Prior knowledge:
Keywords: Membrane, Transmembrane, Transmembrane helix. The protein is mainly α.
Amino acid sequence: MDFISMLDKCGNYGKFQVVILLLYGYTNILGSLHYFSQTLITFTPEHWCAHEDLKGLAAEELRSVYANISQPSCTLLEDVINGTGIAAAHGVCTEWIFMRESGYESITTELNWVCDKSHQPALGQSLFFLGSVVGTMTFGFLSDHIGRLPSLVLATLCGAAGDFMTSFVYTLPWFAVARFVSGLSTDTMYYLMYILVFEYLSPKSRTFGLNIILAVFYCFGLMTSPWAAIWIGNWRRYLWLASLPALGVLVYPLLICESAQWLLTKKKYDEAVACLKRVAKFNGRQVEDSVFAEFVKHYREKTSEEEKVNSQEDTFLGMFRTPRLRRFTLTLLLKSVIITLSCDVINRNMEGLGTSPFKLFSLTSIAYLPAGVAILLLQNKIGRKGMACAALFGGGIITTATGFLIAFLDPRQHAVLLAIMVALGRFGATVSYDAEIQYAAEIIPTSVRGRALSNIHVAGLASSSLASYVIYLSQYYKPLPSIFISILMFFGAGLCLTLPETLDKKLPENLADGESFALDESFLYFPCFHRKQNTEQNA
């Protein structure tokens, strides 16, 4: 009577699962509002150095005035003669004319964080990702000691508190501090809720339920948040809107229960049984007390046997002691850095593409839906390696093409084409990110899976602190971020070839299994081609 059998008796896809999936969807909306609020509050609209003769001019007229000036946004004008600006020999620009999107006031327009201060949003936002590294380790530690549910609630409220604090700052140091606090919950609330949902769903319904809920609700949050920001009109009030819904997690403990599997690992058998009885009652199932007694007896005996056998426990550092596992681990760490950084830059690099960054961000977020469907339809057919490699390689091609288009085309005249390329880039990045999560979990042996995935995730989050600086490269040459990211994605696609295929294979349970896993497999082995070859040979 293991946990899966017990859950089947209590109901593995009933009313309780519907409720927990809806809460998972709500958490995804909170996560999208929280994570991309940093993008929305620091959007920098087109701007020019202010001059008395420029008051009341439209955007096209301002562009004409500055047409012959190399740095129009930061060059002080001495005079305007016949509609042409004459640059001043000396002087520093202290006021700017901003072409605000529907009057939206961002932190860069309010505090004039442009020109010689244009690095300040990037510097402050990098603290957000530093906070995410600290938060992942901190709340990961807490989740193993006080439980998944309380850690989820604390992480979500911590992130909301950071966003709320940010809405009251006026200086870079306080902005950095507030973003650090906000970053503490980044992704942590998503992963903790993911674990809770994963454990209370039947194995057959996990892939479909989790991916569809993620695609629909996360996409909804991304597509609506830019319009909400424009409707509110001010970055400070938008952060209130993004943070206050987080209070909804306070009702989670009233609707769902703690991870029963975590309680079993902590030998809290009575509490685990209480959770499962709650699930059974919610689903309208009647389960005899004798069945629960058998269930507890099974786990008591199992724990006793494991304590006798496992005198030396596998550790994450043990993955570096043998050559193949060491190569797999280093590859997964580096791939996580590449994919996380690429996704963040592609999702945030929305300015100067001929379209309102708000509209571009909102409309191209629809890419999350087909990305989720692509994972469901293709990953079990072409394999994990093929999916990860193809997504990164295809994303690299699209990002490269986008960079060249930005370099040689006028964004204002080819805004639709660039928007399509951005959407395709986000599609490739999203597929890469989603495929990476499952692929890494299957390569890593069961005995160290939780700790290893956490460390790999932390490495990826740490790389995200560089995203703002990669985007800042556009100040020197507009296509530079796209070129840099495309090189990384091509390199990541190559790294995928060095990893073993995991589709339809017995996954490694310990470090010894991991070292010998897919030992004789070729770098160029792909299940889809292998099946085709077998079919032709049999014919």
